[in-house]
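Morning, I've got a small favour to ask if you have a moment. Here's the protein in full, and shout if anything looks odd to you:
***
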Amino acid sequence: SSDLSFPLEFVAFMGDEITRPREPCKVGKHRYIWITVVPVRVYGVGQDPISRQIIVILKDDISKKWLPIAVGPFEAQAISLKLENITTPRPLTHDLFLAIIKSLGTKITKISVTALKNNTFYATITMKTENGFEEIDSRPSDAIALALREDAPIFVSEQVMEEAGIVDKPDADQKTTKLMEIQHRLQEAILREEYEEAAKLR
């Protein structure tokens, strides 16, 4: 089991009033380094007008930076459903996973986007178990979908925010594209429990 029982450590930067938490980042089986992280919130889900990829947009309200992360259509749907407080008749994948870990006495305490390598974002899910804290490697999209359902805080490595964060709000508000229409039809099919139609749309 991972020794992650120590709390987040807060540090103040010289010359400004911004206070950032620091947290352990696993870099080996039993080795951790401290990284400075940025608390963020999920602003929304949209489509990048240039790459046409679906993105989830994270917002740092302190530095006013935005972090767009490309996600798959089903993970985007899971995030959007929770943002819009839509409850499905039957549990979807992330709801099921959360129900299972809760039944085992485990709780998600936070998720962190820890690295950006070769244009791929990496994330971890920190869970509190009866034996302490465990850190699980995850795609950011799955981690975010779970964090929203558990109301767990979301952090981004400050280095990642510096590398990939942008100052201007992403232009990802196009809601009438064919892809978004397919996603809407998929959502409606699931809500009506028409799983056969949903499978065709996938």
Remarks:
- The CA atoms of residues 25 and 32 lie 5 Å apart.
- Confidence is low (pLDDT under 50) at residues 1-19, 174-179.
- The chain is about 30% helix and 35% strand.
- The longest strand covers residues 32-47.
